[in-house]
């Protein structure tokens, strides 16, 4: 494999990257130099590792009492943490492994090839992302690459792509979308709403699949793999590998999530926080880099169609109603003009 020596070196870490890695160091050399000139920066605060609530979804197929208990736990974790893990989630190990295998394969392709994703994979233009084009300081840089793919690109009927990767993605998304529907319905029901809203508005073709790769970062443990953010969806289902690095805010402090190979991670997104009138919490999360190891994760974003109106299910509403299109536009505008997402505070009544 072709190797290029990068431009900024730190003692003890000769910076070698291979041809599949995006050119982080060359592209962001001004940011790295700024930091090198300033001397050591304040480290990302050391965080405690904690287990997230773990919920066994197998209980949903047991008797009434078990089912009830399980639903209450899902709602409680969504109120108190905005994050939880699920076991016996119905996604087979085989599908998860196949998805990971395909993901590793595609990220191993040369950078030049990946960045022509529309020609090479037939994904929509802009699906392949890396770094943070708008970063003006190191803290705004995400040391990662991703394929952020609208599922309308790959689902049957409208299929534009015809590769093992896209059929694996389709299979993965098909099973994960059932889980997302089930969880959304439970969360609505626990707010007292037996709703067909999610079934009608969040179709497999309106959701997104994001394959993330976090290359080892030899520069500094202070570089984020993914900047702190909340998700702009109803809920996210995440499958991560054993490397670790995901952190989230709990009671005002950053905590690290201990990887659990049998579990999927669920988190509440901004749209559910608005829909539930602030009952369920969309919390900030981020990924920290690893000095030596690649890390992979796959996220399924449960989203409605762009015209869907998001209205609080309770009165008086905390947020004015808005369409998903409006929300996304505002997020994009804020990122471009301010360098960061503002999110729900823009929509307060
Ligand atoms: O990789 C992870 O653990 C988190 C991914 C994430 O937050 C995202 O893709 O938005």
Q: Quickly name the level 1 CATH class.
A: Mainly Beta
How much of the sequence lies in strands comes to: 15-25%
Q: What coarse outline follows from CA principal-axis ratios?
A: globular
What is the helix/strand order? EEHHEEHEHHHEEHHEEEEEEHEEEEH
Number of helices: 10
Main β sheet profile: 8 strands, mixed
Strand order of the largest sheet: 4-5-13-10-15-8-7-6
Query: Per CATH, what is the topology?
Result: Jelly Rolls
Outline the secondary-structure elements.
Elements: E1 3-5, E2 16-18, H1 24-27, H2 29-38, E3 48-50, E4 54-56, H3 64-80, E5 83-87, H4 93-107, H5 111-114, H6 117-120, E6 128-130, E7 145-150, H7 164-189, H8 197-201, E8 208-214, E9 224-229, E10 235-240, E11 246-250, E12 253-257, E13 264-268, H9 270-275, E14 285-288, E15 295-302, E16 309-310, E17 322-323, H10 324-338
Parallel strand pairs: 3-12, 4-5
Antiparallel strand pairs: 1-2, 5-13, 6-7, 7-8, 8-15, 9-14, 10-13, 10-15, 11-12, 11-14, 16-17
Helix pairs in contact: 4-7
The structure holds 2-oxoglutaric acid (AKG).
The site of 2-oxoglutaric acid (AKG) has 11 residues, from strand 8, strand 10, strand 14 and strand 15.
Can you offer a commentary on this structure?
With 349 residues, this protein is of the alpha+beta class. The chain has one domain: Sandwich (Jelly Rolls). The chain contains ten helices and 17 strands. A hairpin with a 2-residue loop joins strand 11 and strand 12. Helix 4 crosses helix 7. It is globular. 37% of the residues are buried. The chain binds 2-oxoglutaric acid (AKG). The site of 2-oxoglutaric acid has 11 residues, from strand 8, strand 10, strand 14 and strand 15.
């Amino acid at each position: 494999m072709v190797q290029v020596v990068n431009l900024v070196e730190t003692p003890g870490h000769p910076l070698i990257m291979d041809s599949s890695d995006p050119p982080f160091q060359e592209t962001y050399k001004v940011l790295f130099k700024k930091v090198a000139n300033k001397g050591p920066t304040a480290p990302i605060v050391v965080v405690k590792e904690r287990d997230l609530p773990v919920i066994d979804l197998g209980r949903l197929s047991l008797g009434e009492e078990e089912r009830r208990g399980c639903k209450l736990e899902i709602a409680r974790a969504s109120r108190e943490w905005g994050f939880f893990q699920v076991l016996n989630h119905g996604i087979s190990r085989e599908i998860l492994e196949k998805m990971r295998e395909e993901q590793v394969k595609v990220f191993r392709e040369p950078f030049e090839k990946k960045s022509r994703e529309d020609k090479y994979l037939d994904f929509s233009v802009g699906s392949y992302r890396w770094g943070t084009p708008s970063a003006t300081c190191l803290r705004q840089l995400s040391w990662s690459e991703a394929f952020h793919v609208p599922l309308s690109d790959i689902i049957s009927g409208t299929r534009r792509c015809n590769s093992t990767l896209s059929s694996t993605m389709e299979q993965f998304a098909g099973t994960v979308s059932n889980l997302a529907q089930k969880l959304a319905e439970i969360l609505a029901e626990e707010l007292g709403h037996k709703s067909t809203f999610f079934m009608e508005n969040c179709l497999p073709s309106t959701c997104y699949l994001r394959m993330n790769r976090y290359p080892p970062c030899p520069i500094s443990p202070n570089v984020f793999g993914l900047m702190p953010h909340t998700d702009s969806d109803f809920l996210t289902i995440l499958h991560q590998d054993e490397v670790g690095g995901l952190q989230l805010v709990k009671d005002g402090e950053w905590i690290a999530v201990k990887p659990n190979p049998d579990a999927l991670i669920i988190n509440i997104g901004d749209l559910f926080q608005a829909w539930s009138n602030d009952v369920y919490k969309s919390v900030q999360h981020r990924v920290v880099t690893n000095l030596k190891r690649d890390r992979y994760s796959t996220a399924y974003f449960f989203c409605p169609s762009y015209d869907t109106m998001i209205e609080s299910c309770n009165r008086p509403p905390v947020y004015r109603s808005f369409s998903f299109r409006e929300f996304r536009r505002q997020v994009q505008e804020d990122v471009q003009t301010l360098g960061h997402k503002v999110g729900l505070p823009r929509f307060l009544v």
